[in-house]
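Lecture 7 notes: from sequence to structure.
We start with the chain below.
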Amino acid sequence: MNFISENKLPRTRNGSWQLDFEGPSSEQQQPQPQSQPQQPNQHPKKRSNHFITQEQIRELDAFFKFNDHPSEKERKELGNRLELSPSQIKFWFQNKRTKLKAQSQKEENQILKAQHQKLRAENEKLRTQMTCYKEIPHRCNSCGTCATLVMSNERQ
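Predicted structure tokens for the same chain:
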């Protein structure tokens, strides 16, 4: 196997390594026009964000209720209808599923916290009742003899 040293690989603009498995093509051999030289402290231009309109969101939500994992074909059709790219559709659905999952987990955590507080209160109530019955003779229901209930120091 032949491994290529990292410093021999060309880098892309974002700093990642560019691997060329097919060798240079005729297009790559032609010099490409350089854009304006970048200043050392200047960052490359960011992509402009495309905000989805409320109407598009309503359409996406309606489709989400019908199907929360659209196929590639459905994403293309939906994208054409809403004038969005399939990748925008894909990421919107992914974000929507993540948001719903987080919301569901938050609600579940609130329910579990409430149950936990209820059990703690019940446990504390039982502990105080147990201290009242400490070392008081009780009659055993199964055999009818007297038994003494003693709470250990570990549980108090």
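Points to note: The first helix runs from residue 26 to 29. The helical segments are 26-29, 54-66, 72-82, 86-132.
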